[in-house]
Amino acid sequence: MRGYNFDEKLSALREIEELGHSGTHLDQTSTLKNFRNDLWDPEIFIHPTLIQWRERGSRGTAQIAWEIAKKKIQDHTYKAEKEVRKELEKISLRAQKELLG
Asked: 0.90 exceeded by the pTM?
């Protein structure tokens, strides 16, 4: 999973300042150049033929997105920093004592 790139070129700060909140950014050069970097997921938005769609199980976009999300959550591993783990362990022990006696 990648984060967002906020460097000035990609965030188009000048265009945002010029257009303000009342303008549209859809017809701006930076939007056209960069929208696929953040808003495009060809893994979800596929365009098969009707035959291919049926062969693949006739899944809708929402179902495909849900399956991808579940897999990413299942495959993700997270390990908190040592100090965070220690603090979480303290909280857990304190809660166990309070709740279980």
From this structure: no
The answer to whether residue 1 scores a pLDDT higher than 60 is: no
Alpha helix positions (H), 1-101:
8-11, 13-19, 29-39, 50-55, 61-75, 82-100
Q: How far apart are the first and last CA of the chain?
A: 42
Q: Are 24 and 16 in contact (CB under 8 A)?
A: no
DSSP at 101 = -
Please report, to the nearest 10 degrees, the dihedral formed by the alpha carbons of residues 38, 44, 48, 51 taken in order. -170
| Residue 77 dihedral angles phi and psi, to the nearest 5° | -120, 135
Q: What is the CB-side half-sphere exposure of residue 26 using CA atoms within 13 A?
A: 2
For residue 68, CA distances in Å to 24, 25, 29, 57, 72 come to 32, 30, 31, 15, 6
Token reading at 83: 């100090």
Q: What's the whole-number mean pLDDT along residues 38-45?
A: 75
